[in-house]
Design brief:
Elements: H1 2-23, H2 27-34, H3 105-108, H4 113-116, E1 127-128, E2 134-135, E3 140-141, E4 154-155, H5 199-202, H6 218-222, E5 230-231, E6 234-235
Antiparallel strand pairs: 1-4, 2-3, 5-6
């Protein structure tokens, strides 16, 4: 019985010592408490900078677009090489844009744009890139022969109506205040790329892959001099 009492007394003493030590602040903990700062207020969170509980007093910045008229505006540099250029002038009188009524082409058509001081519609908008394959419900027939390196791209003498909706890619430039400053700097890969498309040089090069102006020769199409052109020493 005496042994049990001694053990109980020892445990109680140890517990009191531990509790007493835990309540004493060390110099390091005191220094940490002195450096504590106030928490971030809710009005400084996010981009709105207003009380997140007061929606009635929160108004987004008004977006204003350039009011300069066509022919009097200043061109805007492209965001990057071959990015769709922004519209630098007011477009109120040009909307809506339809296939039957597209006022944009009256200034931006390639044969008119130089005289108007406007950016010409690039040659890529005068291409038909949609294949005309056929299928009668049973048999599928391709419109080209891939083995002859043919392509589905065709030149057009008019604006491809798949691109009639100019405002799908081109938009007016907003003059509103930025919530976050954009620090991106474009590195144009082509000279004058901030104002000019490079699709004429890249997309249209060697467009005719099997015609008179093609770099593909008859020997290339025959393919008889390559390992892929033989099967058991027999031309195929």
């Amino acid at each position: 019985m005496k042994i049990v009492n001694k053990i109980t007394l020892g445990l109680a003493t140890a517990t009191l010592l531990l509790v007493g030590c835990g309540n004493q602040a060390t110099p390091s903990s005191q220094a940490h408490e002195e450096k504590a700062v106030a928490s971030i207020s809710e009005t400084s969170l996010g981009l709105r900078k207003t009380d997140i509980y007061a929606e009635d007093d929160t108004m987004s910045a008004k977006t204003e677009y350039r009011s300069a008229q066509a022919g009097e505006s200043t061109r805007i540099k492209r965001a990057y090489q071959d990015a769709p250029p922004m519209i630098p002038h007011d477009v109120t009188d040009f909307l809506p844009i339809t296939r039957e009524n597209n006022s944009c082409v009256s200034c931006h058509a390639p044969d008119i744009a130089p005289a108007m001081g406007a950016t010409p519609i690039p040659a890529s908008h005068f291409l038909d890139m949609r294949p005309r394959h056929t299928c009668d419900g049973v048999k599928f027939k391709k419109s080209i022969d891939n083995m002859k390196n043919e392509t589905d791209i065709k030149r057009l003498t008019h604006l491809n109506q798949a691109r009639y909706n100019c405002s799908q890619c081109h938009a007016p430039q907003s003059q509103g205040n930025l919530s976050v400053e954009n620090l991106f700097e474009a590195n144009f890969t082509k000279k004058g790329g901030e104002f000019k498309s490079s699709w004429d040089e890249v997309m249209l090069d060697d467009l005719d892959t099997v015609g008179v102006d093609s770099r593909i020769t008859a020997d290339d199409l025959d393919n008889s001099d390559s390992a892929a052109g033989h099967l058991n020493k027999t031309k195929h």
